[in-house]
Amino acid sequence: MTVTVESGVLLRDLIAQAAKAGMALPSSPDWWALTVGGMISTGSHGSSLSGDGSYVHDYVVGLRIVTPASSDEGYAKVRVLDNNHPDMKAVKLSLGVLGVIAQVTLKLEPLYRRSITIVRKNDSDLATVASTFGNEHAFGEITWYPYHRKALCRIDNRVSGNGLIDFIGFHSTSTPTLEENLEETDDATVTTLELTTSGYGFTNDGNLFTGFPVGYQNRLPASGSHCLDAQTTTTCTWHPRVEGKFYHLTSVTLPLSKVKSFIQDVQNLRDIVPQAFAGLELENGILMRYIKGSNAYLGTQEDSLEFDISYNRDENALAHRRFQDVLDEVEQIAVFRYGGIPHWGKNRNIGFINVIDKYRHAREFLKVRERYDPAGVFSSKWTDQILGLDQSGVAITKEGCAMEGLCIFSEDIHCAPEEGFVCRPGRVYTDARVCRDTTEKDLGVSDI
Known about the structure:
Elements: E1 2-6, H1 11-20, E2 23-24, H2 36-42, E3 60-68, E4 76-82, H3 88-91, E5 100-107, E6 109-110, E7 113-122, H4 126-136, E8 141-145, E9 150-159, E10 164-165, E11 172-173, H5 179-184, H6 193-197, E12 202-203, E13 214-216, H7 225-228, E14 235-236, E15 247-255, H8 256-272, E16 286-291, E17 304-312, H9 324-337, E18 341-342, H10 362-372, H11 381-386, E19 421-425, E20 433-437
Antiparallel strand pairs: 1-5, 2-6, 3-4, 3-5, 7-9, 7-13, 8-9, 8-16, 10-12, 11-14, 15-17, 15-18, 16-17, 19-20
Helix pairs in contact: 4-8, 8-9
C-alpha cells in the first residue's frame, strides 16, 4: 500500500498510476500539475481533518535526499530516511533548503468512492459553521462570497457513480480576464450564476452535470486537464499569451479556535465597504480548506482552517487598485491580529514577517539544516530571511513598498500619495496600516 516515485512526477500521473493498481492518495491539492517534490517541500494540501489529514507530506513514509558533503565523500551524500528516522520531521517539509529530493515513498489506501454535494447558504452563521464543518465531513471545504453574503459548503465524504471534477478556474481560455474591466468601472456587481449552472466544475460522466456526483477518489481530488493540455489557441487563464490573470494570492492558516473571530471581523469590514469584496468573486471568492495538525517541524501545528484569497494585481506595482486598503486590512487581520501562518508557497512579503517565530519546532529544523547543508548551498537570501538566519528580515522598505505588500509602512511615501493613496489605519483592525485611496467618493464611509 505504498508508491515510490521520483521527485518530478506530476500529481496527475501519481493519481492515475495509483488508481490502475486500485489505490488512492487520500488527500491532494486541487491543481494536478504540481510535482511530488514541490508539493511536500511547500506544504501543499487538500482539505481534511480525518485520517492523516490533508498535507501531502504527512503521507510520506520514505524519502531519499542528496545533500552536500565533503571532498572525501565526493561532495554529495545520499541519505535514506523512513518514518522512524528523527530527521524525517524536517526533511518531509524542507522548503528545498536541505538538499535535492530524489525519491519519495507515499502511503496509499485502497481506492474508494466519495459523495459530494454543494449546499449554498446565507453567511449569517458562517463564523460558527466554519469552526465545526471540517470535523463533520471527511473532505469538507467552504467557498465564501462575502459580497453576496453567501457560502458554498462542500459536503464531501467517503461512501461505500463515477463523478469527475474539472475545476472551472483551471479551464483553458482564449480571452483576457474580467478583472481589468472591474477595476475601470464603478459597477462592482458580479454573479455566481456560471458556477451554479455548471455544477461548480463537477460532471457525472466527464461531460454533463445532472446532479452532485458519487465517484472514485482518483477522479475527484484534483483537476486541470483543460488548462494543462491546452492547444496553441487556448491556455491556462494566468498565461501571458492570452493577457491572463495577474494576481496576488494571500493564503493564511488560522487555528480553528480563532476562525470564528476572524470571520466576524471580515464580515464587519464587509458591512462597512461591501463593494470592496465584489472583485474577489471573480476569483472564486475566499476558499476555506481544513488542515490537520502535522508533526512536520514547519507544518501547521494544530487543526486549522486555511483562507485562500486571490485578487487582481496590476502589471504596474504602483498602479491604482480599487479598494486595495480593504483587502490589505483583511491580510493584516489574519497575519498580525490572529497570528496566522502563511502558506510557504504563496503570499506577499508581509505575510512572512517574523514567520519562523510562529513555529515551536523551528530550532529543531534549523539544527537539521546545519547538519545537512552547513555551507548553505541550497539556501538563498529569501530562505535565510524567512528562517530568521538573515536579520535584515523580509520587509523591503522603499517608495511605494506598501502597494505591493513588501512592507508595513510608516509614512505616506510607502504608498503612492501622488495618486491619492496615503497611510491610514484599518477600519475594523485599527492597528492595521493600509494604503487608502482618498479620491474614492463612492463608498459612503469616512476616508479615515
